[in-house]
Known about the structure:
Elements: H1 6-30, H2 47-63, H3 68-85, H4 87-108, H5 124-144
Helix pairs in contact: 1-2, 1-5, 2-3, 2-5, 3-4
Amino acid sequence: xxxxxxxxxxxxxxxxxxxxxxxxxxxxxxxxxxxxxxxxxxxxxxxxxxxxxxxxxxxxxxxxxxxxxxxxxxxxxxxxxxxxxxxxxxxxxxxxxxxxxxxxxxxxxxxxxxxxxxxxxxxxxxxxxxxxxxxxxxxxxxxxxxxx
Length: 148
């Protein structure tokens, strides 16, 4: 198996474009460049969704959209997108609530100040734009680096 296959690079490109977009959105909103967004979870657009949709698109373009491999990739992408907007989003809401409880208890008791990470999941809009980011990134990649 060739790790340098266009499908691999499509996934990497989808992830990089999504994470860079998060960093640029932060730059516009806060007027400061925060490189932590390159490795962050949550936010607009969903990098996980962008990565799997980029790879699924690349598989469809190279192997065909009616192949078992594309079907597998498509279902895997759907599971990732569902997880991003439900399970991980719910975990983020729970973390936010637990952090509020700890804040209230901390004012009265001596508890740990460690916080749970709250930005874990995505809204449907963030997942949708992650999907678009992955597909468009792969189409651009195939346009500028055609596969023989």
